[in-house]
Amino acid sequence: PDNEISSDCNHLLWNYKLNLTTDPKFESVAREVCKSTIAEIKECADEPVGKGFLVSCLVDHRGNITEYQCHQYITKMTAIIFSDYRLICGFMDDCKADINLLKCGSIRPGEKDAHSQGEVVACLEKGLVKEAEETDPRIQVSDQCKKAILRVAELSSDDFHLDRHLYFACRDDRERFCENTQAGEGRVYKCLFNHKFEESMSEKCRDALTTRQKLIAQDYKVSYSLAKSCKSDLKKYRCNVENLPRSREARLSYLLMCLESAVHRGRQVSSECQGEMLDYRRMLMEDFSLSPEIILSCRGEIEHHCSGLHRKGRTLHCLMKVVRGEKGNVGLNCQQALQTLIQETDPGADYRIDRALNEACESVIQTACKHIRSGDPMILSCLMEHLYTEKMVEDCEHRLLELQYFISRDWKLDTVLYRKCQGDASRLCHTHGWNETSELMPPGAVFSCLYRHAYRTEEQGRRLSRECRAEVQRILHQRAMDVKLDPALQDKCMIDLGKWCSEKTETGQELECLQDHLDDLVSDCRDIVGNLTELESEDIQIEALLMRACEPIIQTFCHEVADNQIDSGDLMECLIQNKHQKEMNEKCAIGVTHFQLVQMKDFRFSYKFKMACKEDVLKLCPNIKKKVDVVICLSTTVRNDTLQDAKEHRVSLKCRKQLRVEELEMTEDIRLEPELYEACKSDIKNYCQNVPYGNAQIIECLKEIKKQLSTRCHQKVFKLQETEMMDPELDYTLMRVCKQMIK
User: Fold this and answer.
1) Would you list the DSSP string of 453-519?
2) Cα–Cα nearest to 21, from 56, 47, 48, 49
3) What is the Rg, in whole angstroms, of the alpha carbon atoms belonging to the chain?
4) Which of 263, 169, 163, 179 is nearest to 216 (CA)?
């Protein structure tokens, strides 16, 4: 045992080891044993004779040594050097002042055991990582010592025996978890990292591993396997700058972003390197403490909302939940730090990177998404499609929406969307590269640009490619599930959501509520809700929840129009026409009627009507916005032209045809004729309270008790009957009851 070695013997051993690395006599042994190797490695051949630098140089380049005897000799020398930090060439000179400043020399006072010297390096490493986590660090490690610390960590990256502190902290854990893992090439480190959050992992080993991981975050070369596997790819895509271990380019996040950018651009990155990247991206998602920016920016949020959740990515998901507004407020800096981390780790490309999501959604993936191969980016899309279905579990739903909140704020983080749309985005939306961001571009701006172009007609020019358009539609369908997945909508409508919709917490209710209060909204929110509603009128399949409710009726009556690549409002028209079929369920009928009521607020919300009549409206009904007023204006013009036998109708033929469809649809529900509805509201309450709205039943009820109606309502009902006598097709009940006889 160490403590049985006498102090005299200890001192003698120390001098012997010191001589091994610095004495010219021992250096000559190295020159003899490694003769051909020195000739191959120019940096070592250039080292001056007798200064003691040669052995240190060969240790630095031991990964490139192929000569067997030389490799064996240098491996022994490496073990000797790393047994005591004072033997590492230049380390003592570079870090002497820092050892005193951080009081690292007095960790184990009075003990001169050489093994304790690993504690000195560990103390310096902790000082280095602590400095990165503080806004205004009290003690700063000097630049030359930082370089020396990271160089020592790099040199010990292949064999965990060389990290003396970690070796002694993790001896038992190595036996427990990695007994069959052969030392060398960083394999033991990787094995221990994989077991870091196991319940039986000792706390001292977990701390030592976390420090090691934090050093890797500062300098990727501290990971032997990553540096080795990605060496050629880093060079190929110019991701690394040599001799700058403390520079931005050495940071793990920079390396990941640079190589991920190459992958997303369709460049070849070796499978070994991609495997290493996956491991380290998962590592960053699992443990928030490895990202100094998160610690710096989110310290308050972690203390208030997420303390004690450290393991397996739970703290990060807790912070994401806070950002979504489900658990207090979050600072802008913290939100930006989280957004940056999500881009660095890129879980949108492979859901397995997000361990918390992976564990929560495992059962859903096994049942609902088993047809998609593991790790495919479409797994996330599949999970979104099964949101709020019986296959979804609550924990998975929460983790999924927390992650999607961030993915929805940066279009690049949806891997499939980026792959299919990067050309269109560059051409139409002036985007930057994958790993470049613009402060001038607000969250969601690129996607907004893409969907504006997705629904352009050929006459309007520059449209999206077919495959990009399909992806944009996929994202729109998913976003309709939750207003928080639409950055612009959440940003501009936050006040209105609180004012009008605070009690509407059920799925899909928030957007419906905003549509119901369209006239009450602030102008920015009204514009966004209006644009979204206009988009829905063209492609109602965006309303995923409505589509689910209406699935039986679509399959039976509307499957031909539902299969069209471009909807153009046909599907909603079909649903309205079949609203009273016996196959129609209550949920679908309510959803369709709601959309009809929303359409009355603005004629732009009826896509087919808008496209058929926009020129007629501009010419004959300028400055009229509400659909019902536009219908009255146009139908009055048609009637006058007909009565006066005008040679040429002022309203175009295509508009007259669509106008007829709109007029007939409006007769089915009194709420679709706002003036009549407003005039008769109290009468409906008094006399027709238990009568359903659909199938014109309220109108028939009012007709039957005409003599009891209030004057205003009586006048409106009489006016309606007068119109029906002139044009019997507008009498909904007559046309329904007598359908067979008319035929």
Assistant:
1) HHT--TTT-----HHHHHHHHHHHHHHTT-GGG-HHHHHHTHHHHHHH-TT--STTHHHHHHHHTGG
2) 56
3) 36
4) 163
Backbone phi, psi, residue 332, to 5°: -65, -40
CA atoms within 13 A on the CB side of 271: 0
The two three-digit tokens of residue 221, written as one number: 């070369």
User: What's the chain's length in residues?
Assistant: 743
Position 342 pLDDT exceeds 60: yes
Burial status of residue 115 (CB atoms within 10 A of its CB: 0-12, 13-18, 19 or more) = middle
Crossing angle of helices 570-577/586-599, nearest 10°? 120
Q: For residue 550, name the pLDDT band (cuts at 50, 70, 90).
A: very high
CA distance 733 to 717: 15
d(Cα 375, Cα 378) in Å, to the nearest integer?
9
Weakest mean pLDDT among 324-328, 376-380, 581-585, 730-734: 324-328
Given phi > 0 = left and psi -120 to 50 = alpha, else beta, which region is 486?
A: beta
User: CA–CA separation, 295 vs 341, rounded Å?
Assistant: 12
621 vs 401: CA distance, rounded Å: 45
List of residues 6+ apart from 73 with CB closer than 8 A: 29, 30, 33, 34
Higher pLDDT, 663 or 437: 663
Task: Find, among 135, 128, 130, the residue nearest to 333 by Cα.
Answer: 135
Report pLDDT digits (tens) over 204-236: 999 999 999 999 999 999 999 999 999 999 999
pLDDT for 344 beyond 60: yes
Quote the mean pLDDT of the chain: 87
Instruction: Find the DSSP H helices in 602-652.
Output: 607-620, 627-643
Exposure letters 142-168 (e unless 16+ CB within 10 A, then b): eeebbbbbbbbbbbbbbbbbbbbbbbb
Mean pLDDT of 552-579: 86
Cβ atoms 34, 59 nearer than 8 A:
no
Helix, strand or coil, per DSSP, at residue 713: helix
Q: Whole-angstrom Cα distance, residue 674 to residue 599?
A: 12
State the pLDDT confidence band at 70, using cuts at 50, 70 and 90: confident
pLDDT at 274 over 90: yes
pTM, to two decimals: 0.83
At 452, the amino acid letter reads: R
Which amino acid is residue 113, in one-letter code? D
Residue 329 DSSP symbol? -
Tokens of 460: 């309007």
Q: Assess contact for 141 and 57: CB atoms under 8 A.
A: no
Contact in structure between 518 and 529 (CB atoms under 8 Å): yes
